[in-house]
């Protein structure tokens, strides 16, 4: 069974939350919420991307993180 995690990257560095979310839809909703509400990672990686990546290493969703 695949699991999903949320990754942040800016072309120089990357980070991930360490989640093992079982439903792709839930992971995407969580990533969208983080993007809308903002947090440490969205500030740290402003101008980069936020992605949902499955346990096989495939990005299933990705959006740019706006600069503030």
Task: List its salient traits.
2 helices; alpha+beta; 68 residues; 4-stranded antiparallel sheet
Report the count of strand segments. 4
- Calculate the terminal CA-CA distance, rounded to whole Å: 37 Å
Instruction: Kindly estimate the percentage of residues that lie in beta strands according to DSSP.
Output: 25-35%
Write down the Rg. Answer: 11 Å
Average pLDDT number: 96
**Biggest β-sheet description:** 4 strands, antiparallel
Low-confidence stretches: none
Strand numbers in spatial order across the main sheet = 2-1-3-4
Amount of helix: 25-40%
Q: What is the string of helix and strand elements?
A: EEHHEE
Report the total helices: 2
* Category by helix and strand content: alpha+beta
Label the overall shape.
globular
Descriptive report:
It is built from 2 helices and 4 strands. It has helices at residues 24-37, 40-44; strands spanning 4-9, 14-16, 49-54, 59-64. It has a 4-stranded antiparallel sheet with strand order 2-1-3-4, with helices on one face. A hairpin with a 4-residue loop joins strand 1 (4-9) and strand 2 (14-16). It starts with a strand and ends with a strand.
Write the layout of secondary structure elements.
Elements: E1 4-9, E2 14-16, H1 24-37, H2 40-44, E3 49-54, E4 59-64
Antiparallel strand pairs: 1-2, 1-3, 3-4
In short:
The protein is an alpha+beta fold and 68 residues long.
């Amino acid at each position: 069974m695949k699991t999903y995690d949320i990754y942040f990257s800016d072309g120089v560095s990357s980070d991930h939350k360490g989640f093992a979310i079982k439903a792709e839809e839930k992971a995407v909703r969580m990533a969208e919420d983080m993007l809308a509400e903002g947090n440490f990672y969205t500030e740290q990686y402003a101008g980069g991307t936020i992605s949902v990546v499955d346990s096989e290493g495939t990005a299933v969703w990705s959006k740019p993180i706006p600069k503030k």
